[in-house]
Amino acid sequence: MTDVPLAQPVHLEFPDNALLPSLYGEHDRNLARIEQALDVRIVSRGNQLVITGDPEAAAAARTALEALFQRLARGMTVEAGEVDAAVRLAREAASGGAPILWSEDLTIRTRKRPITPRSPTQASYVRALRSNSLVFGLGPAGTGKTYLAVACAVDRLIAGEVDRIILSRPAVEAGERLGFLPGDLREKVDPYLRPLYDALHDMLPGDQIAKRMASGEIEVAPLAFMRGRTLADAFVILDEAQNTTPGQMKMFLTRLGANARMAVTGDLSQIDLPTGTPSGLTDAIETLADVEGIGFVRFSDADVVRHPLVARIVRAYDARAGSAPLPVRRTGR
Question: Are 238 and 252 in contact (CB under 8 A)?
Fold first, then answer.
């Protein structure tokens, strides 16, 4: 019987001991998270780490730890989400995919905290938002489509590159039938725009949001309010765009004014239009596919950055439906 040689352990040494508590995590929980994700063993000896396991997995662990250390060295934080992102990105790099992303300046700066991409597709999305006047972000829930778009909008507003942010959604279905709901207009539409408010509160202090909304620097409104306007010097985001009609989508896209940016986000597997009504998002993708200056970024379940269970839920539903990526399914009413 021939003995199979054991893989050589990977040794890693860090130059700044002051950053190690944040890198390792309380009770070494960050190291444990990497061990579990990559099926490796990590032993710490002061500022040195020894990583054992499958050679490719050990190399990915090293890449992830080096990226996290670089992040800390730039004054940024490391929490569970960043650890998971580093592992995901390191796996991509180890398999010959995209290089580790935190060596590139893709940081989005907001008043509360810096935000960085957590997957290669998120990185492509941030690049597209920075370089195109109009970007479509397409894919399942939890991939950061809307969140990153709002973050880029806040970054541009703080930097003075735009004068205002306009966030919009089709309210209550594409027909925006609000009349049967109790309360004034603000009370009627607020529940449908709440995810956009939540993203804003992650990036700006509450008093600043209130002040900027009162001054018109930030506007959150249903899609119907866009009709007849020219949106210049603004970063405009249309969320849940799969629930627009082709007419509504054309109306929205043609609002684009001078020095303005638009992000359109949606999930083509969650179309809630009445049966037989075409989706404006599907129509726009087909119509504008070859138009210069428009970016299309497609996310998958591999880009889900919420609880890990969300990615498994998305995969389970797609598998049951036997669907291709980004299927068009409608829930008839």
Answer: yes
The residue assigned the tokens 């597209």 is 128
pTM over 0.85: no
Residue 6 has phi, psi (to 5 degrees) of -75, 145
- Mean pLDDT for each consecutive 10-residue tract of the chain (333 residues)? 61 90 93 93 91 91 90 84 85 64 72 83 92 95 91 94 92 49 55 80 92 92 86 94 94 94 94 89 95 93 72 75 50 39
Q: Which amino acid is at 107?
A: T
| Number of neighbouring beta carbons within 10 Å of residue 45 | 9
| Residues forming beta bridges with residue 106, ordered by sequence position | none
- Give the C-alpha separation, 30 to 28, whole Å: 6
Distance in angstroms (rounded) separating the CA atoms of residues 253 and 247: 10
Kind of pairing between the strands at 114-115 and 108-109: antiparallel
> How far is 57 from 22, CA to CA, in rounded Å?
22
Question: What count of residues does the chain have?
Answer: 333
HSE-CB at 315 with a 13 A cutoff on CA atoms is 9
Axis-axis angle for helices 80-94, 55-73 (nearest 10): 130
Beta carbons within 10 angstroms of residue 99's beta carbon: 13
How many CB atoms within 10 Å of residue 107? 15
